[in-house]
Amino acid sequence: MLTEINTPKDNRIVFAFPPDSGELAGQRYHLGLRFCDNPACRCGVIHVGLSPESSDLGADSDQAEPLPPSVEFGIDVHRRELDAQGSRQRGVKQQLGTAFVGALSTEDWTSLRRIFYAYKRKVTDETPDDEIEATFDADDIERASTMVSLQEVLPYAERKVVDIEGRRF
């Protein structure tokens, strides 16, 4: 389950494994999210970084157990699953990634999709046209006068709707 921790010093998203997560139950991680910066890319992958949350150890920090290492893996917000296509996730990464995906609620997936779409829309709006690496069949467009919609080239661009004489375009 995702929990938002808001403090004046540090706004972070914290992920806590639910009680039914076996040996991971109750473990808390700081959640970092990275997204693809290509506005023409259709992937739905969010790169998730989990860093173990250290408990308040006080003065006896020498006696504390070392924290497990941070882990990064990809999740696909379109398919609501661990990203197997673009990742080489094995061992601990795959186990933690699988457990993470299994613990996400419908509300968590909805939140992640909103964040993903907002980020991709922002990247689409802010990337200069001459820096967009879109692929489409230019020869077919010229030869057959094929029309290409903006969303075919930039899938996360804001949809433009025009009403003319009662018809929506």
What does it look like?
About 3% of the residues have low confidence. Strands 1-2-3-4-5-6 form a 6-stranded antiparallel beta sheet. It has a two-stranded antiparallel ribbon with strand order 7-8. Helix content is 27%, strand content 23%. It is built from 4 helices and 8 strands. It has 169 residues and is of the alpha+beta class. The chain has one domain.
Summarize the structure.
By secondary structure, the chain is of the alpha+beta class. It has helices at 91-103, 106-126, 138-144, 150-153; strands spanning 2-6, 11-16, 28-35, 45-52, 71-76, 81-82, 163-164, 167-168.
Any descriptors?
alpha+beta, elongated
- Overall structural class, as computed from helix and strand content, comes to alpha+beta
Query: Which spans have pLDDT < 50 for at least 5 consecutive residues?
Result: 4-8
Q: How many individual helices?
A: 4
Mean pLDDT: 81
Q: Considering DSSP H and I runs of 4 or more, what fraction of the residues is helical?
A: 25-40%
Q: Can you summarize the main beta sheet?
A: 6 strands, antiparallel
- The total number of structural domains is 1
Q: Outline, from the CA principal axes?
A: elongated
